Amino acid sequence: MNAESLDGRLLFAIPKKGRLYEKCLSILAGADIQFRRHQRLDVCLSLNHPIALVFLPASDIPSFVGKGNVDLGITGHDVILEAQMQNHVTEVLRLGFGKCSLQVQAPESGSIKTVDDLAGKRVVTSFEVLAGEYFTQVDLRNNLTGDKKTQIEYVGGSVEAACALGLADGIVDLVASPESGDTMRAAGLHAIATVLETEAVLIRSTTPKHPTSRHSSR
Ligand SMILES: Nc1ncnc2c1ncn2[C@@H]1O[C@H](COP(=O)(O)OP(=O)(O)OP(=O)(O)O)[C@@H](O)[C@H]1O
Ligand SMILES: O=P(O)(O)OC[C@H]1O[C@H](OP(=O)(O)OP(=O)(O)O)[C@H](O)[C@@H]1O
């Protein structure tokens, strides 16, 4: 595949794996967007529409869309805020799946019952921007400055293991809503605050990079 084969096509980013993947495939099927995904190839041309599907990590989609490298995408509202791309993408439609809450959690058996109990301690998360913003406010109201401030540490996954392993006093992680919380409970954690509610959204670039050029040959 080369750049010319994308000429005249709408580029549509889809999460390549994970929690949103299967639902996205259902949406494509429901819209009769037909494609054949070859093994190891992350760009596929639709067989019946002037569309190219680009399979990307959910966390990269806000930046690809926000910078105008692709035209449309599906990802989580949480991921857009974490990537700090909210001023560069427009959320066109809420999709009603991928619903979950980003929550502050602590060991159920311990003494931490509120976020103020966690202030100045160690928090592990994959959402270091959102957790950082949240605990900046917590630190301010607890008058914590300098090296007294809450320490936010990034991990790429399996966040809920951090407390049991002695890496953290609390975590910030996603909990499915309204249903599950199974991962949190299995790790002996309980939620003490909600940072935000999120779901999957359809996004487009607020300022498309090439508003006409790629589609000019149509
Ligand atoms: N348990 C869940 N229930 C519903 N939606 C979820 C859940 N966990 C995550 N999501 C949504 O799906 C998005 C992608 O999360 P997922 O865990 O699938 O990441 P991933 O694509 O596997 O990437 P990574 O490799 O970084 O974990 C999240 O940002 C969130 O919007
Ligand atoms: O409320 P629950 O139904 O238990 O879902 C919550 C879990 O789902 C997500 O992780 P995921 O399973 O996608 O894997 P990850 O931890 O590797 O990101 C999230 O990070 C939690 O761990």
UniProtKB/TrEMBL annotation:
<comment type="pathway">
    <text>Amino-acid biosynthesis; L-histidine biosynthesis; L-histidine from 5-phospho-alpha-D-ribose 1-diphosphate: step 1/9.</text>
</comment>
<dbReference type="GO" id="GO:0000105">
    <property type="term" value="P:L-histidine biosynthetic process"/>
</dbReference>
<keyword id="KW-0808">Transferase</keyword>
<protein>
    <recommendedName>
        <fullName>ATP phosphoribosyltransferase</fullName>
        <ecNumber>2.4.2.17</ecNumber>
    </recommendedName>
</protein>
<dbReference type="Pfam" id="PF01634">
    <property type="entry name" value="HisG"/>
</dbReference>
<dbReference type="InterPro" id="IPR001348">
    <property type="entry name" value="ATP_PRibTrfase_HisG"/>
</dbReference>
<dbReference type="InterPro" id="IPR013820">
    <property type="entry name" value="ATP_PRibTrfase_cat"/>
</dbReference>
<keyword id="KW-0028">Amino-acid biosynthesis</keyword>
<dbReference type="GO" id="GO:0003879">
    <property type="term" value="F:ATP phosphoribosyltransferase activity"/>
</dbReference>
<feature type="domain" description="ATP phosphoribosyltransferase catalytic">
    <location>
        <begin position="58"/>
        <end position="206"/>
    </location>
</feature>
<dbReference type="GO" id="GO:0005737">
    <property type="term" value="C:cytoplasm"/>
</dbReference>
<keyword id="KW-0368">Histidine biosynthesis</keyword>
<keyword id="KW-0328">Glycosyltransferase</keyword>
